[in-house]
Structures are given as C-alpha cells and as structure tokens.
What we know:
By secondary structure, the chain is mainly α. It has 14 helices and two strands. Residues 2-7 and 341-350 have low confidence and may be disordered.
Amino acid sequence: MSPDKLDTEQIKKRGFISQTARNVIEYIRNISKGTWYSGSMTIWFTVFFLAPLIIIVIYSFLTKGLYGGVEWKLSGEAYKSLLNQSFLFITVRTLITSLIATLITMLFALPCGYFMARSKNQTALLLLIIIPFWTNFLIRVFAWINILGNNGFFNEFLIRIGLVKEYVHFLYNQKAVVLVLVYMYLPYAILPLFSTIDKFDFSLLEAARDLGATKPQSIIKILLPNIRSGIFTAVLFTFIPIFGAYAVPLLIGGQESYMLGNIISDQLTKTRNWPLAASISMMITLVTTIGVLLMMSFQRKEALRNREAKAAEKAELAAMTKIRSFGASLINRQKKVSGQPSQNGLGGSK
Length: 350
C-alpha cells in the first residue's frame, strides 16, 4: 500500500474520531443540570440506601452462623423469633414510649412554633432552636446524666432548699428516658410547625373571634385544621427516630428501659445473631416506610384539596363577575326602557 493511501486513511480516522468527540461533547452540553443532579442523587441513594437495605433483607432470611455472621441457607427463624414473648414485651414498651414522647413533644412544639411565627425576632429564636445541633449528641446525653444523677445539679438543689433529705433516683427509669427523648427531638418538631404556621393567615383567627369564638376555639377550629400538614410532618420527624432510639435508653434508662434499638445492638455485638438483628431492623424500616407513605398520601390529598379550593374560588369569582356584569346590563336596559315610556306619555298628552 502506498504512503499516500495510508495518509488518506489516517486523516479519515482522525476526522471520524474528532467528529465523535464533538458529538459526545455536544450531547454532554445538552444534558440539563437537573439531569446531572438527579443522576448523582440516584447513584448516592442506590449506594448508601438501597444497597444496605437489600443486604439487611437478605440477611434476615439467612441462618445464624455458629461463631457469628450468617450461613447462606434460607431460613425464617429470625422472623419466628419476633413472636417471642419477651421480644413482644419490648416492642410494646418501645411503641408506648415513642407515642408518649411524641405526644409530649408535640404539646411543647405547637406553642413554641406559634410563638415563633408571631414573633418579630424569628431569626434569633430560630438560632436558639438550632444551637443544640452544634453540640454532639452524646455530650448532651451526658449533660442530662449530670443534671439528673444522684450527685447532679437537680438533687443538690432539692437537698439545699430542704425539699428532700436523701437523693432521689431520677435516672435509670422510663420517665427519664421520655424526658431526654423529648429534649433531643423537640427541635425536629418545632421547625416544620414553625414553617407551616408562619404561612398561615392570622386574620382568620381575628375574624373567628369577631364572630364570637373564644381564643382556644379559634385555634382548635381554625388554626389546627389549616396546619395539618406541618403537624403530621412533625409527628413523623419525632416518632420515627424515637422508635429506633439506641443511646438514650441505654445511657439514661438502663436494662429496664431497653428498646428495639438496644436489642439490635445486643444481637449484633453480644449474641452475634445477625439474622435476628436484620429482621428487627426490617420491622423498624417497615414502620418507617408506612409512616412516610402516609405522609406522602396526606400531602397529596392536601395539595389536591388546595387546588380544588383555588379552582372553586376562581369559579366563584368568575360567577360573581358574570352576575355583576349581567346586573349592570339589566340596570342599563331598565334605564333605557324607563326613559321611553316617559317620552311616549308626554307625546300622548299633547
């Protein structure tokens, strides 16, 4: 083959490669930033959420290894163990503790969110709510141990003022666990409530009171129904992490206040029953998923209700506009008709 033909083929190959590179670059440029963002988020959730979840699902159906770990034999023993009486007792305790802590948290979060929404110093109040997040979780737990302990601040204060003569055991019981859980997750309830209440039209409360409603009645019948989405979000943000809590029941409550998170830890580190730990995790995940699905369904219904209300309002305004225009046309027509008889009457008398 001659050198001229070789040069021609090389030029054609280089031209094809350069054209392909141009097409690839043009394709990358045409991809929107949203596509890049969604693609990266998809990869992130796949690697750090879906993959661990799939591993937990698989491990929950395997057999416990003799020295820990798992044996690759399908078994349903882990899920059968969930029906054990002691485990059911801890599950009920976890559920009751989570419900009580969530209820108390909401009772504190609602007035706080309302006060913040009505306040002129919202930035400063938001800063006070966020400040606890600047401190490590365990440091805050140990701070409560120093406050509630036998030699803690609270006991020393009660003894000095003479209310008690001996130390009161505030720690290592269910009440202490609920107290610290409420403190830990109160900001998670206040923030969504504040965000929702801040968008509320407070003139509706004034109108309700002008019509004879008391202040509690106006809040119950007007405010609460209009912030249902914020209340539901706050309940989920509080109940779900409390239901899987581990550090607070262990450090504040002790053995008598064990919750599901502590059982998972014991099964992984002490008894090394990984399938049982995975099955308990699946149960908590199932509860969490049901809660999220309920929130999504509620938000979808709320958005549909808002769209229907806006559509009805627009239709009402359009109808009122038509009625007004029709009434104006009738008045004009009546004026024209009433002017003609007066002229005919004058002509007849003549």
